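Spend some time on this chain, tokens included, and walk me through the fold:

. . .
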Amino acid sequence: MLLAIIAVLAFGFTRLYNLDLIPIFADEAIYIRWAQLMAYDWHHLFVPLTDGKTPLFMWLLVPLLRFNFDPLITGRVLSAAAGLGTVAGIYFLTKKLFEVKTARLAVGLALFQPFLLFYDRLSLTDSLLTALIVWAAYFATGVGLGVFGAAALLVKPSALSYLLLLPVLKLKAWRRHLTAGIITFTIYNLLRLSDSFYMIKQRSLDYLQGPTLQHWSSTIQVFGGWLLSYLGWPLIIIWLLALVIAAKFREKKIGILSLFIILPFLFLALVGKVVYPRYLLPIVPFILIIVSWGLVRLTKQLLVLSVGVILAGWLKFDYYLLIDPVKAPLVRAEKEQFFYSWAAGYGLPEIRQYLLQLPGDKPVVVATEGSFGTLPNGLEIYFSGHPTVQILGVGFPSGGMSQGMDQALVDNKRLFLVANYDRFTFPSSDRLKLVNEYPRPGGERLLFYEVF
């Protein structure tokens, strides 16, 4: 019991400390905005399908938003809760397959694993997906698998590459596998109630391609580099040694768990067209379980030394994630998304505070570049239903002024513009007054103007 309390406290600190440190990311803004629309009107229940996204994460977020806390923090707390579910799932799955000692070690590693830590602190679907896949593996068949498998598919259809492997855990239970399949299929197909169900397949074509070996080897190298950056060489080496030990002693369970790492990894490398490191997150729990199994078979001295070496690299990584994430040893693909590019919402908290401090005697329209993503959704989630401030996504109008912006001035409203320096052209600079600009670590800038 004491160990469980310590684990929960350690998890809570690492997942919730400085939770607003990373600026809002494009997908976070979109998901939270969708959840708000659902909260205001249940007719928007399937709005994520209009972009080909399955809606379970947003459905779970809806009741939490009704507490009226900061919407970004609320979304990230949901991911943290999902991360706690992952850690619990790792414990029970490992205990079911092996022994308590291995399960405790796996939990200890999961608490400080940087890949899990990073995504448990972001309002994205990947942490929830990982938790549901682990619990689906725990049940492995029957009603439990059916429910958790369906839930995983309702988070991301990519869960299928893991769910199809689960019958291997209990090959002879084909009747219960059939039950699980029927439950999963039935629940998932409730999405057909929406006219936008077809968009799941259509949008998948933007991210997937037909199986091809043309760039397979180079893609595998890239994926391997991503995993190495998060896991570190010590863990990779011990994982490989554990596989050798398992092969020597013919430990079939380790071989089966390895399928949940190798096959989804290779499949994604084969069909992925637009891929990001977070797509590999669900394989991490299975790696940790195998590594823990290998570690407990070492002498006590070697076990302590190995865990110490693993954690030494991870704790430094974790420190930067909690204190100064830009300095964390993230790969370029991660830093580009979350810190360097237009998708990173630097400056939005400051703009929000500026707008809230304006006198309320005159309506305000805030035009933003784009119409979907960090702008305008990163501001919309804070001003939805606001009595005097309207957020207006205008896309990229050819003349710099959209019809809505012109109308705001005609209606004698104060007009502001939020745009990225390198993405929005406004030829009539004499009509702009720079309120402030907000640099990103990579050199790009977000500009905040008042328009006259």
